[in-house]
Amino acid sequence: MPEVSMTVNGKPAKGQVEGRTLLVEFLRESLGLTGTHVGCDSSQCGACVVHVNGRAVKSCTMFAAEAEGAEVRTIESMAEPDGTLHPIQAAFQAHHGLQCGFCTPGMVMSAAALLAENPKPSEAEIREYLEGNICRCTGYHNIVKAILAASGQDVSAIAAE
Amino acid sequence: MYAFEIDRPATLADAITALGAEEAQALGGGQTLIPALKQRLAAPARLVALSGVAEIKGIRTGADGALCIGGGTTHAEVAAGAGAYPALAALAARIGDPAVRNRGTIGGSLANNDPSACYPAAVLASGATVVTTNREIAADDFFEGMFTTTLEDGEIITEVRFPVPEKANYQKFEQPASRFALVGVFVAKYADGVRVAVTGASEDGVFRWSEAEAALSKDFAPGALEGLSLSGEGMISDLHGSGDYRAHLVAVMTRRAVAAAG
Ligand SMILES: Cc1cc2nc3c(=O)[nH]c(=O)nc-3n(C[C@H](O)[C@H](O)[C@H](O)COP(=O)(O)OP(=O)(O)OC[C@H]3O[C@@H](n4cnc5c(N)ncnc54)[C@H](O)[C@@H]3O)c2cc1C
Ligand code: FES
Ligand code: FES
What we know:
The complex is a heterodimer of chains A (161) and B (262).
Chain A: E1 3-8, E2 11-16, H1 23-30, E3 49-52, E4 55-58, E5 71-73, H2 87-94, H3 104-117, H4 123-129, H5 141-150
Chain B: E1 5-7, H1 12-19, E2 24-27, H2 33-38, E3 46-49, E4 59-61, E5 67-70, H3 75-81, H4 86-93, H5 98-103, H6 106-112, H7 119-125, E6 129-132, E7 136-138, H8 139-142, E8 157-162, E9 167-174, E10 181-190, E11 193-199, E12 207-208, H9 210-218, H10 243-261
Parallel strand pairs in B: 1-3, 2-3
Antiparallel strand pairs in B: 4-5, 5-8, 6-7, 6-8, 9-10, 10-11, 11-12
Helix pairs in contact in B: 3-4
The structure holds flavin-adenine dinucleotide (FAD) and FE2/S2 (inorganic) cluster (2 copies).
């Protein structure tokens, strides 16, 4: 089996993979980084979103071998080593942006990619950017609110519907 | 997924060689092929990933002013970098979702020729040229019906050359579950006439609506389309919409595209 090596959350990582090994399988099963979730395994739900060279991708729809030499970031890299939550995570908590939490790793990673591109997105821009992230619990409202809050914008105008 | 080997060549020459192997298949962004492999709808012995081939990525202006997009260029790169052809950049910006756009490529989309895909409409309406490792193919000769093109085994799309129109617009009526087009219409006005290409509607895949082209070439205004309609016969009919509904939508989206193109 060929070997693949990449940087995951700032640390070198390598392992043996098959051609068909998905990036998400490598992250979860070889590296034990189970924060990244598999919801649909069919490119639809976005629970598996991670960053590859700074861009949001669905890790269930990319082969591990294709991440050779890449810089990969997962949800595990968001909080500080002492457990202090990343501002996006803290905002999800403060604004009830999660219920069961299954979609949350992908939501947070998509949100982080959005804010890196567009630091002060409008509500409509947030909703559009999250088109590929499905949540069956929250109805999205509080997720959008949390991301607005994390970007330092006033959310008082958004009523709790 | 069945097991396969994966190659990641760094040059086009190496990719061509690798694709010469028995049962080898190109891998673009994988946004269509990986789901198909998971469903065991495809079972190649070897995948040749094109993501490491820099030669087929990027956007440039050709000698004749055409906008030339490398076959391995992602939808996100086209959305950000095809400012010289705003209707095309806008089309790329609305394919799927951000994560799909960060991986999916124009070459993969065209080779796949999904009957509901967006790029085939842009290529056909622009009279673009599809450049491969073997030849240059006119848009009118490239698409051969649902999921079928004139590409041969092992042939790689290296570039797509779009003549830039005076005015153009793409109107996508989105199927919200799949995010593909339920019906999409691309209208492009050139000095020598107007071209109208329709995706998502016909059982034969992307097609040109010639009556609308003739009418719009005389008078580029939504009113010129009055009285023109398509039959629901031969249109895709599924739980999302009947053939008649799609035929109706084509006329509506064409009028909107002309109005938006100005
Ligand atoms: C959730 C979701 C939503 C989507 N929404 C849309 C949408 O709204 N509109 C739309 O148009 N598409 C949509 N797509 C499809 C997306 O655009 C894909 O990127 C595209 O269809 C395939 O491109 P790819 O680069 O991923 O190709 P792959 O999946 O890697 O390959 C597809 C086929 O093309 C071949 N191929 C790949 N590259 C080349 C090349 N350079 N030369 C020759 N053959 C090649 C492969 O062998 C394979 O047969 C969506 C996909 C998903 C998962
Ligand atoms: S698990 Fe990857 S998109 Fe659903
Ligand atoms: S919080 Fe349960 S799926 Fe989103």
